[in-house]
Amino acid sequence: MPAKMGNANQKGHRNVMNELPIESPRIAVITGAGSGIGKAVAHAFLDAGWAVTLAGRRREPLEATAQGRELADVLPTDISRPDDVAHLFAHVHQRWGRLDFLFNNAGTIGPAGAVDEISPEEWTSTVAINLTGSFLCAAEAFRIMKQQDPQGGRIINNGSIAAHSPRPRSAAYTATKHAVTGLTKSIELDGRAYGITCGQIDIGNTSTGLMTTLGVGEGALQADGSRRMEPTFPVEEAARTVLYMAQLPPSANIGTVVMTASGMPFIGRG
Questions:
Q1: pTM of the entire predicted model
Q2: Is 194 a catalytic residue?
């Protein structure tokens, strides 16, 4: 299906392309694309020839991820705001005419504290980004993909090792990541009639800024109260895995991938 081009300057959004290649690329949306896993995934998809709309709160990191590439499209978006998310996917549909893939990646680590130390405001903010934001993006992507029946599309949610086993003092983050697993399974079930598949990648200890925040390299807090230096692995390996999942034929789907650094204290934490 030929891609549809929108107004290059509509609402101030940068249009880095004058025309698409004769053979139109597959179309992806990646949230949280300004740093960490999202940035690495965006580079992997662009290297593979996908057209990618990069979403995140701040334009500057998104522009840095885009690197001026012809098929990189930058659109600042706060995924916790329904109007922002609706505008993001309307922009994608107007510009490209379709959507093949969504990587629901944007998230926050949330407050560090025992359950009685987390304020309602901190809890609500974490849920709004990690869970409601993923729901909003999935819903908008689903609406576009339904129109593409029987071609459908694919959604991959970025869960976490915390979807299986929490770190201490992480009730808000852990609760949202457990909930994302339920969202993934529900999307997969609801999408069957439309050729829409959904999977989840649960990643542990990539070498990103988040791991610095958790103190993984200096000694991460363990369940027994001790601190332990934990191994990490290159974020590019996680990105390659997401790309592999995305490029499976429509007849195949990976429901859940658990990917950790070798030797990470995941099984048998604490």
A1: 0.86
A2: no
